[in-house]
Amino acid sequence: MSVLSQIRRNDQPIYLDYQATTPMDPRVLEAMMPYFTHKFGNPHSRSHSYGWEAEEGVEKGRAQVARLIGADEKEVIFTSGATESNNLAIRGVAEFYKDRKNHIVTTVTEHKCVLDTCRHLEQQGFEVTYLPVQKNGLVDLEELRAAITDKTVVVSVMAVNNEIGVIQPLAEIGKICREKKTFFHTDAAQAAGKIPLDVEAMNIDLLSISGHKIYGPKGIGALYVRRKPRVRLVPLIVGGGQERGFRSGTLPAPLCVGLGEAAEIAMKEMDAEAGRLARLQARMLKGLQDRLPEIYVNGDLEHRIPGNLNISFAYVEGESLMMGIKNLSVSSGSACTSASLEPSYVLRALGVEEELAHTSLRIGLGRFTTEHEVDTAVDELVRHVEKLRAMSPLWEMAQEGIDIKSIEWAAH
Amino acid sequence: MRAPAYLDHNATSPLRPAVLDAMVEALRAGGNPSAVHSVGRKARSLVEAARRSVAGLVGCLPGEVVFTSGGTEANNLALRGAGHRRVLVSAVEHDSVGKASPDGEIIGVDGEGVVDLGALERMLAQPGERALVSVMLANNETGVVQPVGEVVRLARGAGALVHCDAVQAVGKLGFDVHGLGVDYLSLSAHKLGGPAGIGALVVCNGAPLAPDRLGGSQEANRRAGTENVAGIAGFGAAATAARSGLPVAPLRDRLESTLRHIAPGARIFGGGARRLDNTSCIAMPGVKAETQVMAFDLAGVCVSAGAACSSGKVQRSAVLDAMGVEPAEAATAIRVSLGWNSEPGDIDRLIAAWRDLYIRAGKSDIDDARAA
Q1: Within this chain, do residues B156 and B263 fall inside the same structural domain, yes or no?
Q2: Which of B2, B69, B334 to mutate to test the interface with A (most CBs of A within 10 A)?
Q3: Strands B184-188 and B199-203
Q4: 8 Å CB contact between B140 and B11
Q5: B140 & B152 share domain
Q6: End of a domain among B225, B242, B259?
Q7: Best exposed site among A38, B124, B137, B141 by fewest CB in 10 Å?
Q8: pLDDT tens-digit profile of A91-148?
Q9: Interface ipTM
């Protein structure tokens, strides 16, 4: 049985939402299984072999995660996921150093959990600079440099954006932060295992990882915390003092093993996978562009992970399109905020107009996406976009050369 | 080689078979429950079905269950999220309660480890801010069951809210959270045959709760982060299985009576109080706990010398300390805890190993005495 047939049965929709979550790699499940069954011990139990073998699995997982980002295993803390990692990194350093520093620099396109954490800290008296991004979604390095003061405790810039897949210039940001003597945190939930990351070369002090975005399990993540020079944190969760006091609570050994295995597979297969996904991405984009006018890719195409496309289909309402393409699992933005019908704040930050932002889809490609699925998805999208445009008076007007923006709508 | 007899269920319990099946199904299904497409909706339905199972086990409404990464997070969330500056905690609480309320006032316990209700009443009578009282349902080291109903009655009279850490009690002791009357109740899946990495805080009757983890509207804005779908599904399956209770009292009672027959001086901590049916904290006179756990491990029996979380370092048990146990005697206590797959043969092996060690230790005492 092929790996793919274990992942998807024929009657299931085509999964194109790899930035929301990834299916678990069967090899990861295989690595986890013994820790669900006979190696079930509490990794903190020191008095018997069940505890020791669970601990062995946890420590192997920790080393595998460390290798993925060029860290020492002592610098990796397991958490319940990237949301917790981001909360812990930013709140943890801010609270620890609050007597000396009170300023945080981040960007407007960060994940909601970074932005909400920063807003919470503002209420606690911290100052936060939310840097805008350029039209292509990338941060302006000079603006970043100028924003850092001697009161800045941490700069938090995501490695890869969850909606538009753009890769921020991490090495350059790290260099600036090191020069300015401030900590650099990066939310690498969407980047780890997809692009090469090296905490040394990139001068990263804190780095957040998610299990379920890299074909591992949900409910587990990691935070890299630099030891030299040492970064100190106030823990969010206190109790038994596990994870060197940074994060209390019984470690879920099977999940730690799964995250480790997922990290190792990602590291080994990163190059080949990136190449394959780049071809699929190009194939999908060309397929759509060849057959549909007035579609726009949001965010830089070059500085972007190959597993993401974010496209505005002008004159089509994104939600209607999603309702039409029922056998494609895509999203109109971040899953965490997808229940709301607000246009994406990420697209708005790129300067995408509200009408166009409403027409956009996030298409995520990944390890189990096939060429056939891409072709089927292109056909479906083209069919439904054409159908919706045929029903749209705005599209008709645009075809007749009327500038929609010039219309003065009558007030009701 | 025969598999060891596992008698450390209060540290963690092996997965029940139904749990693994539910988890594998969820892992295969994939999906982010917040996504609106069919894969996401399937994940959402697994989460909500599990929420109903967990609610069913403790008798609350599904909407009152907030999933967390485990009991530690649930305890932290309750103590910080309730928003009370004055916190009263019992002296035998788990560290995840004690350390989350560093300024908490300590409610003492008696020699059996039962919270001193008179002391609580006096503390509540002191003028000051409305308090949050945190008293566990059953202790992790001794299994002693606390009079939480009485705690609630006293707290209500003083306008205080009550948090109850039920991590060790759930699935071992039948109770109904609304019957208990507490405002917050912490649960953990891996203590009842579910997976590690998932737990819940039950928030009753709209008690106040400020979220601690920010950045997503999951769990009705009470706990951000993509749901651990497989963990939640496993928790649900474990909760369903745990509803049939844990009939291990005869095994535990046979263990205790046999050990006391072997060594009349063997003390059972909290033995005079109401306890969980699965837990025995027992001292072997004159033999250090570390010696015991090593000897038992060699004999293929897994027990612990206290709570697993702190067992990395050898330190005195704060629980036994609070009960007024002399340090020398406390250092001879081990914890035996049974679970859903415990069998009479497990107890027989422990009894045999315990007897062997006790006799050997006694002999060496005699030899030492002769040499002296």
Answers
A1: no
A2: B69
A3: antiparallel
A4: no
A5: yes
A6: B242
A7: A38
A8: 999 999 999 999 999 999 999 999 999 999 999 999 999 999 999 999 999 999 999 9
A9: 0.89
